[in-house]
Amino acid sequence: MELDLKSLVIPLVAGAAVIAITALFLYIKSYRSPQLYGEAVFRVATDEKLVALTYDDGPSPLYTPEILRLLRERGAKATFFVLGSEAVKYPELIKKIYSDGHEIGNHSWTHEQLIFCTPSFVRSQIDRTDAVLKELGYRGPIPFRAPYGRKLLALPWVLHSTNRRHILFDVIPYDWERPGSAIIAERAVIETQPGSIILLHDGRGERSQTVEATGEIIDALHSQGYRFVTISELLETIVKK
Fold first, then answer.
1. For labeling, which of 62, 161, 168, 179 is most exposed (least CB within 10 Å)?
2. Is 235 exposed, middle or buried (0-12, 13-18, 19+ CB in 10 A)?
3. Do residues 71 and 77 lie in contact, with contact meaning Cβ atoms separated by under 8 Å?
4. Residue 88 located in a structural domain
5. How far is CA 101 from the centre of its chain?
6. Domain range holding 144?
7. What is the pLDDT of residues 135-157, one digit of tens each?
8. Which residues pair with 198 in a beta bridge?
9. At 35, is the secondary structure helix, strand, or coil?
10. How far from the centroid of its chain's Cα atoms is residue 82's Cα?
11. Which CA distances in Å does 186 have to 75, 76, 182?
């Protein structure tokens, strides 16, 4: 009887351990989880009605120019987290982004998940993108955001060793699901609070709903007294405290 009990308990304990470890792993790599070490910024604690609008995965000749037009018409600033591999294809778009007064961030070179990678691979994805942005004349700060916002061990270590924050987000309208521009805008507006960072996309897919939602988001939040700033401007409020 004792042997039968052991034969039952051991697999159950092992199975529970596997489930717990898997759940912990999925949580740690998620864009919603805290980083194991180093600094990850999801939102800036501030009483000022400031919000950072961010776009990932571009630049795209189909969608980025339209977003830039909407931002220009409404006097709003944004941060574009671009892919190095796309930046070299569309150098004039990169120049247009920064000449319009927006900030350019690093979203890696190829958009690979940086979770099962060596530190040297992670560093190469970041460094190559930094280098091409500088070669294209960009002289501003270059904040970093991982593809999918995912991190595990190597990425936080590389960022920490180079004294670099990981810029994530607290407002996720799930624009990549294409639920309709009105729904994207509604989700963004409802979730926004002072110091929020809104995640949107201008590349790697059909982004016409995101373009349309951009104007709706800006108009709605402007009416509530919000001012749209770049990531670096938002981070400056931390220093001032």
1. 161
2. middle
3. yes
4. yes
5. 19
6. 31-240
7. 999 999 999 999 999 887 899 99
8. 53, 171
9. coil
10. 10
11. 21, 18, 6
Domain assignment of residue 37, yes or no: yes
Give the residue numbers marked as catalytic: 56, 201
Query: 5 is written with which tokens?
Result: 């009990």
203 within a domain of the structure (yes/no) = yes
Could you report the per-residue pLDDT of 3-50, keeping only the tens digit for each? Answer: 565 565 555 554 554 443 444 344 444 466 666 778 999 999 999 999
CA distance 1 to 4: 5
- Which of 27, 46, 44 shows the shortest CA–CA distance to 35? 27
Nearest to 38 by CA among 121, 160, 138, 149: 160
Q: What is the CATH number of the domain that holds 203?
A: 3.20.20.370
- Total number of domains in the chain: 1
Average pLDDT, the chain: 89
CA distance 150 to 217: 26
* Mean pLDDT split into 10-residue runs, the chain, 241 residues: 54 50 43 73 96 98 98 98 98 98 98 93 98 98 96 90 96 98 98 98 97 98 98 86 48
